[in-house]
Design brief:
The protein is α/β, with parallel strands linked by helices. It has helices at 6-26, 42-48, 77-89, 100-108, 123-126, 170-178, 190-199, 209-218, 246-261, 264-277, and strands at 50-55, 64-68, 71-75, 92-97, 114-115, 129-131, 140-145, 162-166, 183-187, 204-208, 222-224, 240-242. α3 (77-89) crosses α10. It binds arginine. Residues 50-270 form the Ionotropic glutamate receptor C-terminal domain.
């Protein structure tokens, strides 16, 4: 960006002006119809009767697949939270499953109203999206194969090792910043990383502790490494909304505060850990 020439900047300014002009022309009414802005309103959701949610269901106990009465279903603590929110709003939930890599984009493109996927509200993402208050903040850990427990026990031990992180996740940055000697392997889905750890093509993978515990519980050859990673507030989970959805955000914050104060989020995590344990991967 810094290399843009004077001419390019001039051009950019023109285009920006033109864009402002046209969006002002078509976006002045408050009816919501033909609205070119991507913001979501409480009203539009209530009118539609559904809350459209984007998620990446590969992240037990927050969102994952399980069989319920012989049918594949997406369940998890995030899904329970979203259902509680939809109940409060008096609407139904419609969950779309996709790669984590495209979850935020789908909100931006208006395909979903909100993204709920254990999403960390980083400063970088806050430039492009609105985020609710945080509802969960687990520490970051490294999962390894038990057979390497005596060697992979320090940050330096991961130098030259293959360490997985989900594509598009904050864990990619954690590997780059905190395990700078390791080789980052970006992988689309969390369960695929678990398979690679079991097979030995990955030496480690970085993920949040609550998620790590769930997958380690289901994979007896894996364990959480005895290595401490830094966690900050940037990593805490929030719901993402299109930029400018202030009214909806305020409403969601009220509901989230209530759920937290009633201990519901922890309850959802506990209950879904049990579901994940009994789920055959
Ligand atoms: N908290 C991390 C992030 O926001 C990882 C989230 C991954 N979520 C998922 N459902 N796979 O980048």
């Amino acid at each position: 960006m810094k290399k843009i020439t004077g001419i390019a900047i001039g051009l950019l300014a023109l285009v920006t002006l033109a864009a402002c002009g046209s969006s002002n022309d078509s976006g002045t009414d408050s009816s919501g119809s033909n609205n070119t802005s991507s913001e979501v309103t409480l009203d539009s959701i209530k009118k539609a009767g559904v809350l459209k949610v984007a998620t990446s269901a590969d992240f037990a106990p927050f969102e994952f697949h399980t069989m319920v009465d012989g049918k594949d279903q997406i369940v998890g603590a995030d899904i329970d939270m979203v259902n509680a929110i939809a109940d409060e709003l008096g609407v139904k939930t419609q969950v779309s499953d996709m790669s984590f890599n495209t979850v935020l984009a789908s909100v931006k493109e208006g395909k979903a109203d909100i993204a709920v996927s254990g999403i960390s509200a980083t400063a970088e993402r806050q430039k492009q999206f609105d985020f609710t208050d945080n509802y969960y903040n687990p520490p970051q850990v490294i999962i390894i194969n038990k057979k390497n427990q005596d060697t992979l026990n320090s940050i330096a031990a991961f130098d030259g090792k293959q360490v997985g992180a989900q594509k598009g996740s904050t864990q990619e940055d954690i590997v780059k910043d905190q395990l700078s000697g390791a080789k980052l392997v970006s992988i689309d889905k969390v369960p695929s990383m678990i398979v690679e750890l079991n097979q030995g093509s990955l030496d480690g993978m970085v993920v949040e502790q609550t998620i790590a515990e769930s997958y380690v519980e289901q994979n007896s050859d894996l364990m959480i490494a005895n290595v401490e990673l830094k966690t900050d507030d940037d990593n805490a989970f929030s719901i993402a909304l299109p930029k400018g959805s202030t009214e909806l955000k305020d409403e969601l914050n009220k509901i989230i505060a209530k759920l937290i104060s009633e201990g519901k989020i922890d309850e959802y995590v506990k209950a879904n850990n049990q579901v994940a344990e009994s789920t055959e991967e």
